[in-house]
C-alpha cells in the first residue's frame, strides 16, 4: 500500500533498511520486520541466540538470528498490544463473516447493509457507505433521499458550531503569569538583585485543565502578512494549546473518557491539532507558508536547520491536498477528530476507551458521508431530475469517495506528525517570559 512517507527516505528502526514503508505497530519499519514482529507475537514464539545475544542487526543479516531481531523490535518500541488488538479485530470480522454466510440464503430487502470499506488508515464503518447493489436503488428517488440522516447532520452542525465558538473566545482581562525563580538561567552579580525569570514549566496535566496557566486567549489574526519570528512561533504554539484544551474539554465524547485516558490521548495528539489548525489558517489566509495565529507566517521552503523539513512536508503533503478538496467547516473539523480518535489501540489507554474512540470514529465517517451527500443533493437545480436515478447514483458514489478521501487525509496527518515529532507527545509546557529578552 502506498503511503505519503514512501517518497521520503526513512530507515527501518529495526534493521536499518532504507526502505521503511511507514509506521507499523508504533515505529517506522520495513514490511519484513513488520511481518516478523506480527508472526512472533501472534504465535507467542520464543527464540534463543547462539552467539551471546549481541548479533548485529542489518538488512543483509537480519534473518541470521531471530532472537536478537525480536529483542531489537522490543528495544525500538514495537507494541505487542497493537498486534493483539489487530488479531481480536480479525477474529470479530471472521465470526461476522461466518454469521453472514449462514444467513445469506434469506431474502434481503433493498436497503443499505453493513459492509466494510477499507481506506489507507482504518476501516470505514458500514451502515451508510456501501449499497447492496446500485441497481436496487433505481426504483424510486425517495430511497436516495432516505440516506440522509438528519440526526447525523444535526450533530455535524453542532461540532462545527462548537469549534467556531471556541475560536471566538477572547479574554478581556489580561492573565497574570508568575514565573518561578528556580527555572531562570540568569545569574545575578549582586546578592541583593533578584534575577528575572526567563520561563516557567507547567506540567501538561495542570495546563490542560487550567489553560489560564499558559496564557490569555487573544483574538485570532489570520492574515499571514509578515514573516514569523521566534516569539511569533512561540505565541502561536501557546494560542493553539488554549484552543486545543478549550475544545477537547467541551467535546461530549472526549468527556466520557476517564481522566487518565483523557490526558494520555491529549498528550499524544496535541501536535496533530497544531498541524491541523495551522493548516486551516493557511487555507483561509491563502499565504505561501504556514499561517500563525498572530498575523505572521512561516515560509514554505526547505530548511537547512530542520533535517526532516517538517514545514515543507506540512505544506505540501497535508495543506495542499486539503485545499484542493475545498472542505466545509464540518469536514475540516472531522479530519482532526478522525485523526484524534484513530489508532488509539497503540496508545496506553483502557479497552473501554479504545472501543469508544473506534465507535466514535466510525460515526464520524458516516457523518462525513451524509454531510457530503446531503450537500450534493441540495446543490442540484431539480431534485428529481425528471426521474433520472443515475444522477443520484453518481452523487452517492462521489460522496462516498469524498468521505474516504477525507479519512485518508486524516491518516496522512497522523503519519506526518509522527515522522516530524516522534511518539513522545507533549509532556510539559514552557511558558517563556519574552519581556526579559526584549529589554
UniProtKB/TrEMBL annotation:
NR LBD domain: residues covered: 193-439
Domain of life the protein comes from: Eukaryota
Domain Nuclear receptor: 9-85
Keyword annotations from UniProtKB, A to Z: DNA-binding, Metal-binding, Nucleus, Receptor, Transcription, Transcription regulation, Zinc, Zinc-finger
GO molecular function list: DNA-binding transcription factor activity; RNA polymerase II cis-regulatory region sequence-specific DNA binding; zinc ion binding
Cellular component GO terms held in the UniProt record: nucleus
Pfam families registered for this protein in UniProt: Hormone_recep, zf-C4
InterPro entries found in the cross-reference section: C.elegans_NHRs (IPR052499), HNF4-like_DBD (IPR049636), NHR-like_dom_sf (IPR035500), Nucl_hrmn_rcpt_lig-bd (IPR000536), Znf_hrmn_rcpt (IPR001628), Znf_NHR/GATA (IPR013088)
Main location: nucleus
Subcellular compartments: Nucleus
Keyword Transferase: no
Entry similarity comment: Belongs to the nuclear hormone receptor family.
Name the record gives this protein: Nuclear receptor domain-containing protein
Amino acid at each position: 500500500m502506498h503511503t505519503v512517507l514512501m517518497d521520503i527516505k526513512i530507515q527501518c528502526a529495526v534493521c536499518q533498511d532504507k526502505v521503511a514503508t511507514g509506521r507499523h505497530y508504533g515505529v517506522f519499519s520495513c514490511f519484513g520486520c513488520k511481518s516478523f514482529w506480527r508472526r512472533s507475537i501472534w504465535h507467542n514464539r520464543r527464540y534463543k541466540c547462539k552467539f551471546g545475544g549481541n548479533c548485529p542487526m542489518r538488512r543483509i543479516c537480519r534473518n541470521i538470528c531471530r532472537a536478537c531481531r525480536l529483542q531489537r523490535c522490543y528495544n525500538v518500541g514495537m507494541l505487542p498490544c497493537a498486534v493483539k488488538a489487530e488479531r481480536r479485530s480479525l477474529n470479530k470480522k471472521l465470526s461476522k463473516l461466518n454469521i453472514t454466510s449462514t444467513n445469506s440464503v434469506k431474502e434481503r430487502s433493498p436497503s443499505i447493509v453493513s459492509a466494510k470499506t477499507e481506506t489507507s488508515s482504518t476501516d470505514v464503518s458500514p451502515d451508510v457507505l456501501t449499497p447492496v447493489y446500485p441497481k436496487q436503488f433505481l426504483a424510486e428517488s425517495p430511497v436516495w433521499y432516505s440516506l440522509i440522516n438528519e440526526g447525523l447532520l444535526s450533530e455535524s452542525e453542532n461540532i462545527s458550531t462548537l469549534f467556531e465558538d471556541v475560536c471566538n473566545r477572547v479574554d478581556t482581562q489580561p492573565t497574570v503569569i508568575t514565573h518561578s525563580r528556580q527555572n531562570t538561567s540568569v545569574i545575578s552579580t549582586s546578592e541583593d538583585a533578584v534575577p528575572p525569570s526567563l520561563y516557567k514549566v507547567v506540567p501538561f496535566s495542570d495546563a490542560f485543565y487550567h489553560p489560564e496557566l499558559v496564557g490569555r486567549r487573544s483574538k485570532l489574526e489570520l492574515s499571514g502578512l509578515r514573516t514569523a519570528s521566534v516569539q511569533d512561533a512561540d505565541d502561536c504554539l501557546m494560542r493553539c494549546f488554549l484552543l486545543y484544551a478549550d475544545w477537547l474539554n467541551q467535546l461530549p465524547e472526549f468527556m466520557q473518557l476517564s481522566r487518565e485516558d483523557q490526558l494520555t490521548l491529549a498528550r499524544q495528539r496535541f501536535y496533530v491539532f497544531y498541524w491541523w489548525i495551522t493548516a486551516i489558517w493557511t487555507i483561509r489566509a491563502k499565504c505561501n507558508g504556514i499561517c500563525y495565529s498572530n498575523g505572521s507566517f512561516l515560509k514554505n521552503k526547505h530548511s537547512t536547520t530542520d533535517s526532516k523539513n517538517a514545514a515543507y512536508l506540512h505544506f505540501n503533503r497535508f495543506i495542499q491536498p486539503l485545499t484542493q478538496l475545498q472542505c466545509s467547516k464540518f469536514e475540516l473539523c472531522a479530519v482532526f477528530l478522525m485523526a484524534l480518535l484513530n489508532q488509539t489501540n497503540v496508545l496506553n489507554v483502557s479497552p473501554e476507551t479504545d472501543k469508544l474512540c473506534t465507535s466514535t470514529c466510525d460515526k464520524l465517517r458516516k457523518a462525513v458521508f451524509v454531510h457530503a451527500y446531503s450537500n450534493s443533493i441540495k446543490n442540484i437545480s431539480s431534485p428529481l431530475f425528471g426521474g433520472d436515478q443515475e444522477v443520484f447514483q453518481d452523487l452517492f458514489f462521489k460522496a462516498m469517495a469524498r468521505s474516504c478521501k477525507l479519512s485518508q487525509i486524516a491518516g496522512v496527518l497522523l503519519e506526518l506528525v509522527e515522522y516530524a515529532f516522534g511518539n513522545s507527545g507533549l509532556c510539559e509546557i514552557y511558558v517563556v517570559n519574552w519581556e526579559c529578552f526584549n529589554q
